[in-house]
Specification:
By secondary structure, this protein is mostly helical. It is built from 8 helices and no strands. The termini are far apart.
Length: 195
């Protein structure tokens, strides 16, 4: 065999191996990101025709949240917030719409105390999806119900069951936010709200 042909075949083999390794690592990163942020990953994919655009968006979220000064709550803050949540839960019996608004406000407050910006809801949901991916979609649904409740001119106010589910969804994120993120934790199961 000619030496040139052997060199060309060797270079071609190295290129094929290199491309295979690159594609394999890219797929591993995609899978890891998808597992870490599965609901957010699914939502981002729906908003992008290009799956790599969704990955870029999720990586940008991670970078943004890494720049935030997220902190654990003090025990006094945690106790005070927990007590206020209990009050909202008691309020739910007589005033489900008011309790749902209070739950939405408490979630925003605990996020702010932890260090998340809370101005725009979509940005808030995107930021919280990085550290709390298992509950963020529930919070989107709960927030939508709370917004419908807040509209005085909306005659199709949320049903009692919708408000109850909204409250339970807010509780899932509230409980998750009370826990120190420096250790790996599973989302706490929301407590059942009885009608």
């Amino acid at each position: 065999m000619d030496t040139r042909l052997m060199i060309v075949l060797g270079i071609a083999s190295l290129v094929v191996i290199g491309v295979t390794i690159w594609l394999s690592r890219r797929q591993q990163r995609t899978n890891a990101l998808g597992e870490q942020l599965s609901p957010a990953h699914d939502r981002a994919r729906q908003g992008h025709a290009d799956p790599h655009g969704a990955e870029r968006e999720l990586k940008e979220r991670q970078r943004r949240v890494e720049q935030l000064q997220i902190r654990a709550l003090t025990s006094d803050e945690r106790d005070g917030l927990t007590e206020r949540w209990r009050s909202a839960q008691v309020q739910f019996v007589d005033d489900p719409a008011g309790a749902t608004r209070a739950a939405d406000a408490l979630v925003a407050e605990v996020m702010q105390l932890r260090g998340y910006p809370v101005g725009d809801f979509e940005q808030r949901a995107a930021d919280v999806s990085v550290d709390h991916p298992r509950v963020v979609e529930h919070v989107r649904a709960a927030h939508a119900i709370a917004r419908r409740n807040a509209r005085r001119d909306d005659h199709s106010n949320a049903s009692s069951e919708g408000r109850r589910q909204s409250f339970v969804d807010f509780r899932a994120l509230f409980d998750d936010l009370l826990v120190d993120d420096s250790r790996e934790v599973e989302a706490l199961a929301p407590r059942e709200i009885r009608r």
